[in-house]
Amino acid sequence: MHRLEFKKVYKRFGEKVIAVNNANFFVDEGEFVTLLGPSGCGKTTTLRLIAGLDRTSEGEILINDKIINALSPSERDIAMVFQSYALYPHMNVFENIAIPLQVRKMSKSDVKTRVGSIAQMLGISTLLDRKPRELSGGQRQRVAIGRALVREPNLFLLDEPLANLDAILRHRMRGELKALFHSVDGTTIYVTHDQEEALAMSDKIVVMNYGVIQQIGAPEEIYKRPVNKFVAVFVGNPQINIIEAKNAEDMSKLFSSSKVNALEKLTHDGKVEIGIRPENIVLGKGNIFGKVTLIEPMGANLLVSVETALNSEKIKVKLFISNTVKISEGDDVNFSIKESELLFFLNEKRVDVEG
Question: DSSP labels for 85-104?
């Protein structure tokens, strides 16, 4: 197993574009770490810097405490799985998986043994004679992963490998991928913009935006204790509700008097906003009132949009159908909020509020 470290890494394109801005993070041996963020946040560039496909403008990248900045991609012994699969169409599955071993001039018998073992692990032993055009999307992805696994590299790099799959297959494959890379003790860096994927698969998540690392932490920490408003809004489905704490009268409907006093003091330092996850709102009881504007069925859940009496703020409420009071669009409703689960932001940075 191998570990990776970024120390004050920058990547600039020209004078104005900073794709990676002072990145510092550590991937321990055997960890599955996800780089998460919207398109253009710098996550794929970070992956390319690790692979050696791009060179750093400043800073150091280390594998097992050895600086690798000057090493070529082949010298880094890193396997990368791309979104596009990158399979050779004129070769069959066996040949596609075997390429890294043939480059190393491994004997034919050893190549056959190694490829056979990987194919069995991935459940594609019966497909070894097929060409990529004869495979489904999920099968092609397994072949691309097999080609990475067969090398037994220092690190596995995966760049949105599930993006081209349908929703059902993506859901199944993400569980299989996590189990697979843990079973081979692989140190893995995974890139995605899908926050559900990141939460489900990762040991640790690195959230990025505009080239800057916003937060590093375990999935539960990222979700429950986001460091700022960006992380809170980006991570979570349905998206978190954000309302502004404007006056004591509105806040008194949400909180105890001691918390209202604490929040009023914070408003003197800047803009205070309250983050409310849709699953932490309880309809049918409480002293906050509103009108249902939209109901969206989501399988076992309902997503209910409510225009509230709090400065006409609109919020989303997530309900389990089996526990739901009967409601319709246009209904007047009352609700309460699980105060212990609320998040508070002062000038977009999360703060703890006593009370």
Answer: ----TTS-HHHHHHHHHHHT
For residue 122, the model assigns a pLDDT of: 83
pLDDT tens track for 99-128 = 988 888 889 999 999 899 889 888 899 999
Q: What is the pLDDT of residues 258-293, one digit of tens each?
A: 777 777 777 777 788 899 999 998 888 787 888 999
Q: Which of 18, 53, 20 is nearest to 35 (CA)?
A: 20
Residues 17, 57 contacting (CB under 8 angstroms):
no
List of E strands, 160-298:
188-192, 204-209, 212-217, 241-244, 272-276, 281-298
Give me the residue label for tokens 């209910």.
Answer: 304
Measure the CA–CA gap between 305 and 318, rounded to whole angstroms. Answer: 9
Q: Which helix (H) or strand (E) holds 76?
A: helix 73-76
Pick the CATH number of 4-228 from 3.40.50.10090, 3.60.10.10, 3.40.50.300, 1.20.120.80: 3.40.50.300
What single-letter DSSP state applies at residue 9? E
- Name the token pair of 49: 């810097």
Q: Are 67 and 31 in contact (CB under 8 A)?
A: no
Give how far Cα 326 sits from Cα of 93, 156, 205, 238, 308, Å. 54, 50, 39, 21, 19
Q: Which two tokens stand for residue 239?
A: 């998206």
